[in-house]
Write a structure and sequence with these properties.
Elements lengths: L5 E8 L6 H10 L5 E8 L6 H8 L4 E4 L6 H9 L6 E5 L3 E3 L3 H11 L3 E9 L16 H12 L17 E3 L7 E5 H7 L11 H11 L3 E12 L11 H19 L4 H30 L14
Parallel strand pairs: 1-2, 1-4, 2-3, 6-9
Antiparallel strand pairs: 4-8, 5-9, 6-8, 7-9
Helix pairs in contact: 7-8, 8-9
Amino acid sequence: MAIDCGLDVVIVTYASEAHIRQCLDSLFRHRPSCEMRVLLVDNDSPDSTLDVVRGDYSEVLVIAREHNDGFAVANNAALRATTAPFVLVLNPDTEIEAGTLDHLMSVMANEQSIGVLGCRLLTADGTLDHASKRSFPSPMTAAKYFLLKAIGRSGSAYVRPDVDENSIADVDAINGAFMLVRARAMDEVGLFDEKYWMYGEDLDWCARFHSAGWRVVYDGTVVAHHLKGGSTGGRRPMRLNYHFHRSMEIFYLDHVSSGHRLADAIVSMGIWLRFALTSVSHSVANATRNRPMAKKPAVDGAVD
């Protein structure tokens, strides 16, 4: 079914050479029935991301930034240039499946109260990306989520276990790796909050859409793929780990805090204690992984 609308796709890249071909190839191979334009913002990549895009994807509108000012700033640079009635914010480590975009845009066209729509995101091993459907984190749900994650389990209300992954439901938030947004709603709500350098800006945006009266919906009947960490290199380096926890604190103070100073101080201390613990854990893991292996002793006169 042809959809009488247009779609602008916004992609932010940084050192994305390993993934951007698969992302763009899948996007153009499974493009929607309506007109589609792709705007790509590169955050001063140190690799050949820009060469790949400029050399092989001439229809992509490229915005090359001279500095890496973060995910929110870069997205906003492209979002300001969008003109279509629908906008897809898409990570470079994602791949689109056939029919996904047409289905979701049809849902948006028929459900005028939806401001933001996401789909079932599958990780590299075929399991659901937990951030596809989320509740806004409270100190208790966040603590439970991280504790369960530490022991290899899940079940916190933060990841909405009550919503079947194949179903359709209103949720608090979806994943910033794939967000289909109604431009009219975005004009009312505003762009990403640039206080968030990286992480948390999708939660904040969804909270602001809710506050403005727009629905945020998860549609698990269609799929896209998200190689989590593909745009950040997997395990978070120290700088990204810092921004992850800083974003947690910002979101809590902006949307969760009751204004009680002691409670805010306790929550902030908990966030930065977790930052310290994860930083030490990551440093130990990196040191162990990079430690040279001891040479095996020669046996029966053999040498290495």
